[in-house]
Amino acid sequence: MLLWTARTAALGTVGVALYLTLSPDPTGAGLLPPWAGHLGIFAGVGASFALLRHASGWAASRLNLLTLAVVALSATTEVGQSFTGRDPDLIDLTLDLTGGLSAMFASDALLARLRGRPARD
User: Fold this and answer.
1) Any idea where the domains of the chain sit in the sequence?
2) Is 88 exposed, middle or buried (0-12, 13-18, 19+ CB in 10 A)?
3) How far apart are CA 56 and CA 7, in angstroms?
4) What is the dihedral of CA 111, 112, 116, 117, to 10 degrees?
5) Burial group, residue 46, by CB count within 10 angstroms (0-12, 13-18, 19+)
6) Rounded mean pLDDT of 83-88?
7) Residue 42's closest CA among 112, 94, 109?
């Protein structure tokens, strides 16, 4: 059950990130300052990826692959914005990476501690 919840969370957060970053005028845009939106959207992605790793029983070495996934999603959404009438921005990319990676590593460490294992197994 936890594995399916983790998969759904990961797919859901990636879907929300794609919608909010690639839509020309997404619903809810402007509710938060842009920096908070970017950090929050990708923090959800990173945290859900950490949950997916733990629920799947993947080794800590899989964090390398999940790190690449966060980087790829962040970069492709910024490049993809040029096709939707929005402007790609290096600051937005930096915020996406900061939110996604910091939440992923922090959540991974917290989940490992809650399970009674070291974060790096």
Assistant:
1) 2-22+32-114
2) middle
3) 9
4) 170
5) buried
6) 90
7) 94
Distance between CA 118 and CA 109 in Å, rounded? 8
- In the predicted structure, residue 68 carries a pLDDT above the cut 90: yes
Confidence of residue 30 (pLDDT cuts 50, 70, 90): confident
| Residue 115 pLDDT level (bands cut at 50, 70, 90) | confident
Look up tokens 């197994």; give the residue.
Answer: 121
Looking at the chain, the whole-number percentage of residues with pLDDT higher than 90 is 81
What does the H/E/C string look like for 35-79? HHHHHHHHHHHHHHHHHHHHHHCCCHHHHHHHHHHHHHHHHHHHH
Q: Any idea which residue has 């962040």 for tokens?
A: 74
